[in-house]
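A.,

Following up on our hallway conversation. Structure tokens first:
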């Protein structure tokens, strides 16, 4: 990288927030804001629980700085220099987070360590062949010797926002390895859970997910008519991002 990991990882700190602890008003799985009457958001409550751990690094508020960076690094039509700037800094965020917290993510997933690391592929076969996220994760030192391409899209199946057991296929048989799955954004979790389904079917003993941004719609009211939106709840979180903690620490 042209800049150091610590320096690059601080580029978006003003937009980053540590995710809220699970509990009333926070989904116990993906950490989005929800109606306090429920334990999980709609999608987490209606999709398979096939991920041993879900660990978002931060929130990605729609059209905010983090969301813009997560779009820019892979969006066609964006200037190459802008794409590279975002990609380097997002890679640094993942690098620093995994360097400091992979051990506690493994503990959260009830495994000793992760034997292999892979990404959630694009659902489109053509886009997946030139995946910007695969390129981004290829720069990350703490995982470079364990990173493999384990999945590919089938090009068939249902809408991307729905869990689909046929969306991805495994490229190799696994023999009980624990797999760390990486993604850039979690919106409904359907792609990550579809990927986990294929990995477990291929023989993975456990699959845990680390995702850079848990997407938020700032205008959405978890309690309809309350006047309190996700944007309000996001704004109430401490502004200083604390690298020493993570969602695994606050899992209870």
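Then the amino acids I'd put at each of the 252 positions:
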């Amino acid at each position: 990288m042209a800049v150091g990991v610590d320096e690059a990882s601080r580029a978006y700190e003003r937009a980053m927030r540590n995710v809220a602890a699970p509990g009333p008003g926070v989904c116990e799985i993906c950490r989005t804001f929800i109606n306090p009457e429920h334990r999980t958001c709609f999608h987490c409550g209606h999709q398979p629980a096939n991920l041993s751990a879900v660990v978002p690094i931060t929130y990605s508020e729609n059209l905010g700085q983090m969301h813009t960076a997560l779009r820019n690094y892979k969006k066609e039509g964006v200037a190459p220099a802008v794409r590279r700037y975002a990609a380097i800094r997002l890679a640094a965020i993942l690098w620093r987070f995994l360097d400091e917290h992979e051990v506690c993510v493994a503990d959260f997933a009830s495994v000793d360590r992760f034997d292999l690391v892979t990404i959630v592929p694009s659902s489109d076969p053509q886009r997946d062949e030139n995946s910007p996220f695969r390129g981004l994760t290829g720069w990350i030192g703490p995982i470079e010797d364990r990173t493999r391409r384990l999945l590919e899209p089938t090009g068939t199946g249902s809408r991307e926002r729905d869990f689909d057991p046929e969306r991805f296929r495994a490229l190799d048989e696994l023999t009980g390895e624990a797999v760390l799955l990486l993604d850039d954004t979690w919106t409904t979790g359907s792609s990550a859970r579809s990927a986990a389904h294929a990995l477990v079917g291929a023989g993975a003993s456990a699959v845990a997910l680390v995702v850079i941004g848990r997407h938020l719609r700032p205008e959405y009211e978890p309690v309809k008519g309350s006047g309190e939106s996700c944007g309000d709840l996001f704004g109430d979180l401490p502004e200083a991002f604390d690298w020493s903690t993570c969602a695994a620490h606050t899992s209870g």
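The helical segments are 5-9, 42-45, 65-72, 80-108, 125-129, 132-137, 190-201, 230-235. Curious whether your intuition agrees with the design.

B.
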